[in-house]
Each structure stands twice: as C-alpha cells, then as structure tokens.
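Async update (no meeting this week)

Hi team, since we skipped the sync, here's where things stand on the single-chain job. The sequence we agreed to prioritize is pasted below, unchanged from the tracker. I ran it this morning and attached the output directly underneath so nobody has to dig for it. Comments welcome in thread, and please keep replies under the output.
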Amino acid sequence: MHKHVTLLGVLYIIFHLFFLFTAVIILFVFAGSIFLAHSRETTTTLTIVGLALILFFCLLSLPGIIGGIGLLQRRSWARILVLILAIFNLVNIPFGTALGIYSLWVLLNSETAQVFDKRPAAPINNQVRT
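Output:
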C-alpha cells in the first residue's frame, strides 16, 4: 500500500496543480478582457467575475496540493483531508470521480491505516555520563 499512497499523493498534487494552472489562465483572460472593455460597467463586471473564478479555483486547488504533500510525508491529518476531498471529487466527472473512487479505495483500506499508524521509534541515547 506504500506505492498506492505515494501514487495517490502525486495524483492529488498533479490534479490540483491543474486547477491552479486554470486559475492563472483565467487571470490572464480576464485581465485582457478588462483592457478591451469599452464601458465602466463591463470592466466592473469582468473584474468581479474574474476574481470570483480565480478565488474559486485557488480554493479548490490548495487543499489538494497540501493533502498530496502530506500523503507523501505519511501525515495522518493528510489522510483525513484527502478522504474529505475524495468525497467532493466524486461529483467532478470524469477525472475527479475516478480519483475520488481510487482515493477512497486506498485510504479506507486496513493496510493503509497501518501505514499511517507506524511512528518512528524514539532515538536511543547511548551517551555515557562521566
């Protein structure tokens, strides 16, 4: 299951970087549209809609990127975050649905729970006092 958790972390980072890239494209499209707008009302509308879309895509992408990085580091909070995101991904047809199903399969597996439950042993202090 280590390989599946690693793959899932990489997939979450790539999938949500795509959302971030989409936000950058929207930024450039709406910035260009604002410069071409002839009236003040159009400029205001484009600014509001553009900022709302950029904020929406950033809010979609940042938790996924953070969760993917946390999965790669085997953080238990990342497992919970990605489980929550997997439920939301199920409605994002077709790629999000596939990622959501795969996420639920990997993260709800009992072997995966053991992967996240393992903690590094405490360091042994072998220094001799004199």
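Quick observations from my side:
The helical segments are 2-36, 40-72, 76-89, 95-107, 110-117.
The chain has one domain: 2-116.
Reply here if anything looks off.
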